[in-house]
Amino acid sequence: MKKLLIFVLLIICGHAFAGDWDFFQLNKTSYFSYSSYASTVIGGLRIDSVLSNGSETTFYLNKQFNPENPASCSQANLDQSYYYENSFFTDSIYQRNDTVFYFIYQSSLPFFFLPKATIGQSWDVVSTVSGNSYNTINFTCISNEPETFFGITDSVKTFSMTPNGTETNQTPISNFEFKLSKNYGLIKYLPFYDFLYHPANYDFTQYTTIGINSSTLASGFQVPRFEDYFHLAAGDIRLWLHDVRTDAIMVPDWTEYFRDSITQALITPDSVVYTFDRVIEDSGHVMIQSPGMTEVYRKTDFSYLKNCPPQNTGYAYNIPMYNPSIPGNAGLIVDPKPIAFTIDSLTGDSLYAFSFTSYAFFLDTIGCGIYQILDQDYNYSLNTNAGIIESCDNNHGSNCTKLVAYKINGVQAGNISLGISTGPKVESETMNAHYSNGLLTLNNLPDIANTGYDYRIFNSIGKLLLSGHETHSVINFDGNSSGVYVIEINLNGKRKGLKFLVE
């Protein structure tokens, strides 16, 4: 990977930079969307490095680190890190003359495509993956006509996709679209992986390009900015659930609530500062007043927002709501997730949500190396309505603060009052967990026949051992050693922690 960073500087011309019918173009970000459950997921792809050797070109996707590099060696370090991989495509796309190739380890034959195919031209993509019900998908170029997409009109080739077999529980690939624009790349397509790996339990995913961004053009969807997330004002109210799950057997778990009434919002070019009066309802339902508190959000801590997607790795100087031990010469490496898009049911506005996880990897900017703090990780989420909506510090247990109700710009969601009945708790004092002969039985669970519940089981040092969704009160927990364990139950958005003993 290091040689890539050298060669890319030497390339100053050639097909890879601005060829007609290229899948992607150098330093132009292509934003795509696909449906996932109740939301639309938005990802990004960017050819930011190219290695050319005569008629052969390798395109590297999403490899460049953000421009706020804290050290000259950061790119090389992060490129070699195992967690720095794209979840949609792997390392590269390879092109020889006018044919594009993509390889996966499960198939000895690659996916390949002919971008410059003429109308009527066809070819077969053959997979050797043993789990597929059929092994061949035929591409045929069926049209080349002008089309308009996110405000741009360009020539677009449409390709049919015909498999040599079917699978009863799988939507046929012929129902999906594959379209290539002459000057702006792929606008409707499927992950190249799908053409080689498509067993019976695997359904195809339609990607649709919804925006592009380069130094000369920005059209369609663009990544939300720092100020799109942090824009609260005086009078806004947030109600938080603070949930602590300990890994110490003698220390009980606890839940409390915070209601923050913002009294001032100071917005500068570099940061946003919220001043608020906090009322705490502690685990014993005692009310505690904490006026004049502040939260500070700095753009430098969120510099990766403008590059995610397509960037798969970010760099943070601080974690919102927590103060982890980050040395002065190091910064936290974060793993951003794709953006989720929904329509706000209360306002009808577009709502974008973003989250990241960090496994406590740090980049040492003096020694130019990466190290990790063991048994520690962080994750948080934010959206364009409320800013931060969840923040977790998972260090030998879990310490999570989650937004459960709010009143923002006059629009209220949920109950923002404090009191005994506040918040999403499982109101069952008689619920308990009992283990016997490999089976864990949950007694007095309410309403599970209708809704089911999610669960997570941890050992005594906070390690996650088992998780899932269940509609019955009995869970198979066989094969575990003697000791004390904790099961966390999530029932209709309400959580309950129960300890049990394996003898």
Descriptive account of the structure:
With 503 residues, this protein is mainly beta. It folds into three domains: 2-220, no CATH class; 226-413, no CATH class; 432-502, Sandwich (Immunoglobulin-like). The protein is 5% helix and 49% strand. The protein has helices at 2-7, 15-18, 74-79, 226-229, 448-451; strands spanning 29-36, 39-53, 56-61, 92-96, 99-102, 111-113, 122-126, 136-149, 152-163, 178-181, 185-189, 207-213, 218-220, 237-246, 254-267, 271-281, 287-298, 314-316, 330-336, 339-343, 350-364, 369-372, 376-383, 387-395, 397-408, 411-413, 432-436, 439-443, 453-458, 464-470, 474-476, 483-491, 494-502. The strands form three sheets. It has a 26-stranded antiparallel beta sheet that branches. Strands 30-29-32-33 form a four-stranded antiparallel beta sheet, with no helix packed on it. A three-stranded antiparallel beta sheet has the order 27-28-31, with no helix packed on it. A hairpin with a 5-residue loop joins strand 29 and strand 30. The longest helix is centred in the first third of the chain and has 6 residues, at 2-7. The radius of gyration is 26 Å and the shape is globular. The relative contact order is 0.11. Residues 1-17, 80-91, 322-329 and 420-427 have low confidence and may be disordered.
The count of strands amounts to 33
Largest sheet: 26 strands, antiparallel
Distance between the termini: 51 Å
Strand content: over 45%
What is the count of helical runs?
Answer: 5
Helical residues, percent: under 10%
Tell me the radius of gyration. 26 Å
Total separate domains: 3
Structural class: mainly beta
> Which shape, going by the Cα principal axes?
globular
Uncertain segments? 1-17, 80-91, 322-329, 420-427
Average pLDDT across residues?
79
